[in-house]
Amino acid sequence: MWDKVQETVKFLKDKGITKPDYGIILGTGLGNLVDKITIEIKIPYGEIPNFPVSTVQGHSGELIFGTIGTKKVVAMKGRFHFYEGWTMEQTVFPVRVMKFLGVDNLIVSNASGGVNPAFKVGDIMLITDHINFMPEHPLRGKNDERFGPRFVDMHEAYSKKMIAKMEGIAEKLNISVQKGIYLALQGPTFETPAEYKMVKILGADAVGMSTVPEVIVAKHMGMTCFGLSVITDLGVEGIVEAVSHEEVQKAAKGSEKNIGNLVEEFIKTV
Ligand code: HPA
What we know:
alpha/beta, Rossmann fold, five-stranded mixed β-barrel, 9 strands, 31% helix, binds hypoxanthine
């Protein structure tokens, strides 16, 4: 794993990717955030040694390097989901690579189902914490101390400072945001009404199929993380309706502009 990461990092550094200020993982329907990036380098995943290649429709895979204002960013357009069949190691591989490119701050986005009755479709939720309900753990197995410690502190998986900063920016831009806890399930099925209820009882506000493995590994390596989630459907008791990937993408698309503006301003602001 170590050697593979270093090989990929060397390849990307040789291509000209140098110490980005932020790493960004763009989730379902949020790919448009790339329009905010002044792109310098764009590499399809298929050309990057050791990178998995995404298979889900709407998750085109490219690594993008460029600037937003004066900040350098490296962005993953398309991420790897555990449900696609990748191992946990493959799912989180790009985050390992980001760290050794010099990224200390990670921004992740995703689409999720809201179980908090105060949420509406299209809401943007700042992730305050997560619950790991994935069936495998990305740090299971022998620990490589070069990446980080065996036992990882998770008391502030999502930076309080970054959340406060984003709340300030949302207020300034007059975009309303929610805050809440994200619970990750493997998928690829959406939840049954009983499962949505379970998610709520467990203490979460939204449920999805990504993000948690990446954030765990980022914390393993001492990165500071910020996450936001678009609520693309509701799993609230009494109003659980049919949901499809298309609807999720449509709902995510509706909030894309606001998320783009929020993250752009977030990165530009010191
Ligand atoms: N459940 C899981 N993942 C999701 C959902 C959901 O309701 N919506 C978007 N991604």
